[in-house]
Amino acid sequence: MSTTYVHSTGAQEDVEKRSTVSLNPPQMKLIGGGLVVTAVLAVFLLLTQEPVQPLLLLIGLLLGYTLFHARFGFTSAFRRFMAVGNGQAIRSHMVMLAAAVTLFAPILAFGISFFGTGASGYVSPIGTSVIVGAFIFGIGMQLGGGCASGTLFAVGGGRTVMFITLLFFIVGSVIGAAHLPFWTEDMPNGQPVSLAETTGLGYGGAWLISIVLFGLIAWITLVVEKKRRAPKMAPVPTTSGWKRILRGSWPLFAAAIVLAVLNALTLMTRGQPWGVTSAFTLWGSKAAESVGIDVASWGYWQGENAAMLEASIFSDTTTILNFGVIIGAFLASAAGGLFKFSPLKGKHVTAAVIGGLAMGYGARLAYGCNIGAYFGGIASFSLHGYLWAVMALLGTFAALYIRPLFGLSVPKSRDTFC
């Protein structure tokens, strides 16, 4: 029986005019190659690194597989809501966050971890750094065609322009690290605020407030949709039965719960939630150091971070998670018969360069990206995660007026899109 598959992603350029392609046969040679690479990397990590590293590689692979199969993203979710008022993907974010805080609360309260290192969330200061950084990131992800996690899984899926986005994401991260003391020390910034600890509510009270907030946000999206008569996301044709796990499109809400569970596993495995962009800063700083730039003297690389700069990238937990996400997305795309390199367009390349730089710089200022600050921050009951979301939405709104300059589409009220 022939089935169809909508190749749309919130992290890549979303297909705002519905297009479907046949569900192709799995690309077995690519799958085999991906599994070999995974096995070789896992063995290397087992022999040379701490036991946590191969486990994180597996978690990263599952994250990438989930992101690709559900086309679960943040970029188009923000864009759809700001452009035409469609909040379906935003509501899936609320499901993800509700599941995450439910899992994170006991883990953080009791310091539960697999390796006895304890567990701590991402709770960061609020102020100028987050406001400016998240706004810049919001613009950047709309120009670059994907957020932090989206860039990784789009690269794994073969979207050629995202390799350019990733390269300049790394460059922007390094520049942001160099400028970070100005934004965090010279500009007005407050203290970290935890809904659980700073307010005295405890994790039970913080959990309850979080659930209420998520419900309120979901309700607001429904009100906005009704008021603006927002177009609905087109249903995604898919296969059925167990084949859907490997090849068919996954429901957003199901993927939301899976991502929350995997983030909780990450927290218990390495003692911190899922993150992405600190690895970009590490890779870029090592490259800069190799050509004679004294990055070790920067404020960013002082204290605990100094050891990271001196060690192998394979000892960095975020690096291994990123590798896993890329490989997982690659395997998912090959399983669906969808992996292929896409052609480049001049204006899109320019947008990718600017978008990558903006995301890298913004993520460093804002203590993270859509994963570390938005997902991980809110799941950790940090107020800065909510501030990040608001400013990234405002950056998205600003980008709606910039995207057409680079030949990038903006959803219209008459569109039915995926």
Structure write-up:
The structure is a single chain. This protein has 418 residues and is mostly helical. It has one domain (23-406). It has 16 helices and four strands. It has helices at 28-48, 52-70, 75-84, 88-110, 128-144, 148-156, 161-186, 202-228, 243-246, 252-270, 277-290, 305-310, 317-335, 346-365, 370-379, 383-399, and strands at residues 4-5, 21-22, 125-127, 189-192. The strands form two sheets. It has a two-stranded antiparallel ribbon with strand order 1-2. A two-stranded antiparallel ribbon has the order 3-4. Helix 2 (52-70) crosses helix 13 (317-335), helix 5 runs antiparallel to helix 14 (346-365) and helix 15 runs antiparallel to helix 16 (383-399). The longest helix is centred in the middle third of the chain and has 27 residues, at 202-228. The relative contact order is 0.24. The model is unreliable at 1-21 and 414-418 (pLDDT under 50).
Protein topology:
Layout: E1 4-5, E2 21-22, H1 28-48, H2 52-70, H3 75-84, H4 88-110, E3 125-127, H5 128-144, H6 148-156, H7 161-186, E4 189-192, H8 202-228, H9 243-246, H10 252-270, H11 277-290, H12 305-310, H13 317-335, H14 346-365, H15 370-379, H16 383-399
Antiparallel strand pairs: 1-2, 3-4
Helix pairs in contact: 1-13, 2-6, 2-10, 2-13, 3-16, 4-8, 4-10, 5-14, 5-16, 6-7, 6-13, 7-11, 7-14, 11-13, 15-16
